[in-house]
Each structure stands twice: as C-alpha cells, then as structure tokens.
Design goal:
Number of strands: 5
Largest sheet: 5 strands, mixed
Shape: globular
Oligomer: single chain
Helix content: 10-25%
Low-confidence stretches: none
Number of domains: 1
Mean pLDDT: 95
CATH superfamily: Beta-grasp domain
CATH topology: Ubiquitin-like (UB roll)
CATH architecture: Roll
Strand content: 15-25%
CATH class: Alpha Beta
Distance between the termini: 34 Å
Order of helices and strands: EHEHHEEE
Number of helices: 3
C-alpha cells in the first residue's frame, strides 16, 4: 500500500510517500495512526497528536474506524485551514 504525506507531516517524517506492508493487526485508521509512530522518532514527532491528523483512504476522507486493509493509497495531512 502507498502512504502519502503532505505539508508539515511530510516535512517532519522526511519523505513524501512510501510503499509499506501493514502489520496484520492494523485494520483501521486508528490502528494505522497508532502503528506509524512506532516506526521511528520522525514518525513519532509528526504524529504525536493523532486526533488532528486528517486521513484519506483511496482519496476519500476517512473516519477513525475506516477499514484500511484493502486500501491502495492512504494520505495523511494536517488540518486544512481556510482564509
């Protein structure tokens, strides 16, 4: 599966995208946001406040309980602000 990172999430992690195989226990967006910080300090720093991270699964906004097991692409980005 492809993970894509945007804005300051990308800057803190240090990469724009990557291809990963999720562990079998990662089934939802909540699981993904709990697993990613275990991958290193850069991930832990970028995702230290998972409640503010927005996630899109296959280009559709996702909720915490959205299934990620069959996704081809997951995007993570900070809250969108207008102005």
């Amino acid at each position: 599966m492809k993970l894509v990172y945007f804005s300051w999430v990308k800057d803190r992690i240090g990469i724009a995208e990557e291809t990963v195989e999720l562990p079998s226990d990662v089934k939802t967006v909540t699981d993904l946001l709990a697993w990613l910080p275990t991958r290193g300090a850069n991930f832990a720093n970028a995702l230290s406040e998972p409640a503010i991270i927005r996630v899109a699964v296959d280009q559709e906004y996702a909720t915490p309980d959205t299934d990620v097991t069959k996704a081809t692409e997951i995007a993570l980005f900070p809250p969108v602000t207008g102005g």
